[in-house]
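for the writeup, i need someone to sanity check this before i put it in the appendix. the sequnce is what the collaborator sent (i think, or maybe the updated version? ugh). structure was predicted straight from it, no edits. if anything looks off just tell me and ill rerun, i have time this weekend
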Amino acid sequence: MQEAQKHLISVDPVMSGLIAKYGDCTLTPHNDYYRELVTSIISQQLSVKAAQTIFNRFLNLFNGNMPAPAQVLATDIETLRSIGCSCAKASYITDLAERIMDGRLDLDHIATLPNDEVIKQLVAVRGIGEWSVHMFMIFSLGRTNILPIGDLGIRNAMAHLYNLDCTKPKDLLQISLQNQWAPFQSVASWYLWKSIDTS
């Protein structure tokens, strides 16, 4: 992270100001990939509080523990719906479990795959789109060069900080290119999120 911060300070005055204001980037990757993906599915279009409530109920179905994919597949859709999951989300969680069980999604080795292959494997899972994959790559895999241009927070922060009238993907990519964020676009994104964090 120190290398990333030094790079961003040297190439972009806006990033330099954000780093001075918010200090060291605290992105910390982890390998609890299955839990992260289930949480991502449950959290879609919900507040943080509502998502956490439903996820806790999900764990309670399995005595408070994160279930293995086989346990999820042994649980019927109606049981998953009873904890507050929509029918769609229940089917997404089941699809995720099926893909892990049959090997179409290999979470044991996903960290070794290039970005394009990670995206390909994960967007094949029902209910997981590009935004969810970008979040997974940044916060779970610790990939340092991801710019989640579909994230509303990133778009709003860039519009404000770089005086953009338009936040189409090509505009955001152009800002990154002009300011030489690569190969640390994920770290730049972290500072953009910090700039709009009101918690």
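The mean pLDDT is 93. The radius of gyration is 18 Å.
thx in advance!!
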